[in-house]
UniProtKB/TrEMBL annotation:
It comes from the Bacteria. The keyword Methyltransferase applies. This is C-methyltransferase. InterPro entries: Methyltransf_Zn-bd_dom_put, Methyltransf_Zn-bd_dom_put_sf, MeTrfase_14, SAM-dependent_MTases_sf. Transmembrane segments: none annotated. Residues 248-406 form the C-methyltransferase domain. Residues 8-69 form the Methyltransferase putative zinc binding domain.
Amino acid sequence: MINKLKQCRICGNSKLTRFLPLGKIPLPNGFLKSADLKKDEPKYPLNVGICTSCGLVQLMEIVSPEIMFRNYVYIPSTSKTRMNNFAQIASTVRERFSVGPESLVIDIGSNDGSLLSYFKGYGIKTLGIDPATNLAKIAELKGIETINDFVSVELAKKIRRSKGPAKIITATNVVAHINDLHHLFTAVEIMLKDDGVFICEFPYLRDLIENNQFDTIYHEHLSYFSIKPLQVLITQEGLEFLDVERTPIDGGSLRVYLCKKQKSSKASPKINNLIKEEEEIGLYSTQTLHSFASRVRNLRTKLRAKLKSLKKKNQIIAAYGAAAKGNILLNYCEIGTSLIDFAVDSTPYKQGLFMPGSHIRIYPEAEILKRMPDYTLILAWNFAKEIMDKEKKYAAKGGKFIIPVPEVTIV
């Protein structure tokens, strides 16, 4: 169920230095029914370390993916911001790489088929791969062919034989979830055409550290990528950088374009520039990492103090967005029903359930205007603008928002 990491998942180095212990926390997507509240709730260690050789930041313990991903509750189609990002990816990729009706696009970790639906809308052949049975069924209902399984070398060979090679392979917010990165990249290399492109998007370690985004650290996210260790990985796997973009999604992400190794490199100079910047700001230094850990502890102290102060004044406080990051924040900061009265979320699957660890009940978003809490803590802070735009009536009636990251701020 839990395995201790003995060596770096990229370079195999056994010297891993822990710098951020977040304690034992329930799985952030382990939502509870009322009958579950009296049962013992499993908690798993959440400790973050860095490889002293290649610089990969990674979790020190690994929870079985069968526990985390077979029934998954996050659906991207409930977020306008996420869907706009998908639409932009599909449009850009189609134009830049001349992807036509004869091309095949494969999405790894395809969820409910949201990204592929945009490619399909252009008349392009699509195929999804996702281990979550509930989400694969939703995608199939949308007409998105989906293989309900974990990506593997064996599966890649079957797909290559039955579908042919893919012009484009995408993996948005997925690569960080996979323990055996070499196995993943071997599978990608098998499925990809010789002139194909592998596009992966993931939260950028630099943004995570600079903006105190500790709540994006959770059991599903095994790795926290930056360019330097990623270069080590792809070099080992016969791939190379084509291009990289910094995007605002999820508080700051990298969108990386990879291709099979060419005789003459086509890599954008942005790659080396980013690596140089990472070194210049001391991204991998002990001082930087311990400073980050200190800021995280201070944020916890300030947030708890602010909420306690408001509750002493008999203020009603809601939480907005029962996101995984929100559950990490609540559990690490030891915030429960004594400080938060209720939570709301747009995902139908979560409504009526209770948040793991904190046991705060989740309602539909309409509950905000119905109950008019004095303050609303935006747990899904990466969608804060979208949420505040949606809840203008609440703000007009005097409701205030608390944004916890990067600093505790009241709007």
